[in-house]
C-alpha cells in the first residue's frame, strides 16, 4: 500500500492565507513569495526552488490577473490548470498556494485603485499592451501587502516586469528583497512559457526565432549596438510565421534604449507573434 500523497495547502481567501503566514511568522520563520498566473512549468519551479533556499516558508500565488490583460488579449484563453499546478508543487516544500478569485482580489471591481508604472511602463511590452504594467504592479503590490514576504522571486524571462517591480519596491518603500532567477529554457533555446502550449508544431519551430535573435545579438555585442540590431533582426526575420513586434537594446539601469556607441552591459528585448501566440524573451549582452 502506498502512503497518501500530501497535497499542497490551498488558501482561497486573503484571511486564510494571512492565517497561515502569521502562524509561521510568529514562530520566527522567514517568508518568500513566488507570484504566478499558474499553468506552472519548470521556469516557475526554478523560482520555487530558489525561494526555498532563501526563506523558511514559501508561498506561491496563482492568480490570472484580469487587470493586466487588455481588451482583445488572451485573458479568456489563458490556461487555468490548478489541479496540475498543485500536483507539480507537491513535495517542493510550499507552505501554501494562494489561489484567490477575482472578486476576492478586486472587491471594488474594475474601478479599483491602481499603481501607475510611469514612463518605462509605456515602452516595449507596455506600448503593445497599454495598461499591462499598471495592472501587473497593482496585483504585485496587493500580494506584497497580503503576504508581507521577506523576499519575492521573479523570473529574468520578464525583464521589463522585474525592472518595474524593483522600481516600485524602491519608490513605494516596500520592505522586502527582490530575487531574480535566470530564464529556464528548452534544450533548443526556447524560453519556457505558459503560452508555449498554444504553439502548433510549425509555430514551435518558428518560435526559435526569438532565442536565435538573442544569440546573434550576444555574438555581435563586441561590434556595438548597430551591429547587434542588424544581426538580431536578420535572425528574427528568418522565419515566415513570425511577426516581430519589437527588438530593442536597453540600458539595464534605466531600461531606456542605449545610445549609439554605448559600451558595457545591456539587455536585448524581443517580442513577436508566432501564429496566434505572443512571445517575449530577452538576454543580457556586453557591448563594445
Ligand atoms: P507568469 O505565471 O508567466 O506570470 O510568471 C510567473 C513568474 O515566473 C514570473 O516572475 C516570470 O518571470 C517567471 N517565469 C516565467 N517563465 C519563466 C522561465 N522560462 N524561466 C524563469 N522564470 C520564468
From TrEMBL:
Q: Mention any Pfam family matching this sequence.
A: Pantoate_ligase
* Membrane spanning stretches: none
Instruction: Specify the superkingdom.
Output: Bacteria
Q: What is its main location?
A: cytoplasm
The alphabetized list of GO BP terms reads: pantothenate biosynthetic process
Where does the chain bind (R)-pantoate?
68, 161
Which residues make up the binding site for ATP? 37-44, 155-158, 184, 192-195
UniProt-recorded Gene Ontology molecular function terms: ATP binding; pantoate-beta-alanine ligase activity
Pathway the protein acts in: Cofactor biosynthesis; (R)-pantothenate biosynthesis; (R)-pantothenate from (R)-pantoate and beta-alanine: step 1/1
Task: Please state where this protein is localized.
Answer: Cytoplasm
The record lists the catalysed reaction(s) as: (R)-pantoate + beta-alanine + ATP = (R)-pantothenate + AMP + diphosphate + H(+)
InterPro entries noted in UniProt: Cyt_trans-like, Pantoate_ligase, Pantoate_ligase_C, Rossmann-like_a/b/a_fold
**One GO CC term of this entry?**
cytosol
Enzyme nomenclature, EC number:
6.3.2.1
PANTHER family per the UniProt record, alphabetical: CYTIDYLATE KINASE/PANTOATE-BETA-ALANINE LIGASE, PANTOATE--BETA-ALANINE LIGASE
Q: What is its biological role?
A: Catalyzes the condensation of pantoate with beta-alanine in an ATP-dependent reaction via a pantoyl-adenylate intermediate.
Q: What is this protein called?
A: Pantothenate synthetase
Q: Which organism is it from?
A: Agromyces agglutinans
Corresponding gene? panC
Amino acid at each position: 500500500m502506498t502512503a497518501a500523497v500530501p497535497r499542497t495547502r490551498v488558501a482561497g481567501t486573503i484571511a486564510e492565507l494571512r492565517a497561515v503566514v502569521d502562524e509561521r511568522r510568529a514562530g520566527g520563520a522567514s517568508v518568500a513569495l513566488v507570484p504566478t498566473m499558474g499553468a506552472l512549468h519548470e521556469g516557475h519551479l526554478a523560482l520555487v526552488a530558489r525561494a526555498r533556499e532563501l526563506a523558511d516558508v514559501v508561498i506561491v500565488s496563482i492568480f490570472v490577473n484580469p487587470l493586466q490583460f487588455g481588451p482583445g488579449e488572451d485573458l479568456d484563453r489563458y490556461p487555468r490548470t490548478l489541479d496540475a499546478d498543485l500536483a507539480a508543487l507537491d513535495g517542493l516544500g510550499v507552505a501554501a498556494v494562494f489561489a484567490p478569485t477575482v472578486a476576492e482580489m478586486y472587491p471594488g471591481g474594475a474601478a479599483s485603485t491602481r499603481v501607475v508604472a510611469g514612463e518605462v511602463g509605456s515602452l516595449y511590452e507596455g506600448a503593445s499592451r497599454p495598461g499591462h504594467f499598471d495592472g501587473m504592479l497593482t496585483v504585485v503590490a496587493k500580494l506584497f501587502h497580503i503576504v508581507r514576504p521577506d523576499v519575492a522571486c521573479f523570473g529574468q524571462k520578464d525583464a521589463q516586469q522585474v525592472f518595474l517591480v524593483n522600481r516600485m519596491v524602491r519608490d513605494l518603500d516596500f520592505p522586502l528583497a527582490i530575487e531574480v532567477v535566470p530564464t529556464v529554457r528548452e534544450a533548443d533555446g526556447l524560453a519556457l512559457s505558459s503560452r508555449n502550449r498554444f504553439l502548433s508544431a510549425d509555430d514551435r519551430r518558428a518560435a526559435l526565432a526569438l532565442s536565435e535573435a538573442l544569440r546573434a545579438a550576444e555574438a555581435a555585442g563586441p561590434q556595438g549596438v548597430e551591429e547587434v540590431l542588424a544581426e538580431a533582426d536578420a535572425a528574427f526575420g528568418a522565419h515566415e510565421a513570425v511577426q516581430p513586434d519589437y527588438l530593442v537594446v536597453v540600458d539595464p539601469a534605466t531600461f531606456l534604449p542605449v545610445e549609439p556607441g554605448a559600451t558595457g552591459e545591456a539587455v536585448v528585448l524581443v517580442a513577436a507573434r508566432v501564429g496566434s501566440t505572443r512571445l517575449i524573451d530577452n538576454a543580457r549582452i556586453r557591448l563594445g
